[in-house]
Amino acid sequence: MLELAKRNAPIKPDILLPKPADWPEQMEKRLREHGARRLNTIGIERTDRAGREKLRLMNFEFYGAPCAVFLFMDGSLPEWSLFDIGLFAQNLILSAHCFGIGSCIQASVTEYAKEIKTFLNIEKNKKLVACISMGHPDKEAKLNTYRSVKKEADEFMYWHE
Description:
CATH architecture: 3-Layer(aba) Sandwich
CATH class: Alpha Beta
CATH topology: NADH Oxidase
Number of domains: 1
Strand content: 5-15%
CATH superfamily: NADH Oxidase
Largest sheet: 3 strands, antiparallel
Number of helices: 5
Structural class: alpha+beta
Number of strands: 3
């Protein structure tokens, strides 16, 4: 995968979800802030193309994690099954956390679904949904010190009595 990503080989994920043409204004603002803060944390300038490319390629090295879990679903299942796989992924991640194992969900890795299925000898009728890199967190790594920009719960939760 790393070699494919380095040469910008054409991507073909099994699940192609459309990206919005425009983000709502508040989301766009948060996305930009998140990107800037993340780059700042690891010491990469927004104009540093080589640094940003190195960061992108770290996805395909699982950020140095010793283990990667690939989640597949049967190709005959409807898109609704993605919700079930999301629940499974969350429970897997929370369970690993209980044992001191860190994780990172990586959607970009799924861009090379065919090659991953070939390498892992996975049936062609399976759809690659996600990759989760796992390992003991390196608490000294700059990237692990970053916390993403999030809304406060009272900004999106409403209680009706």
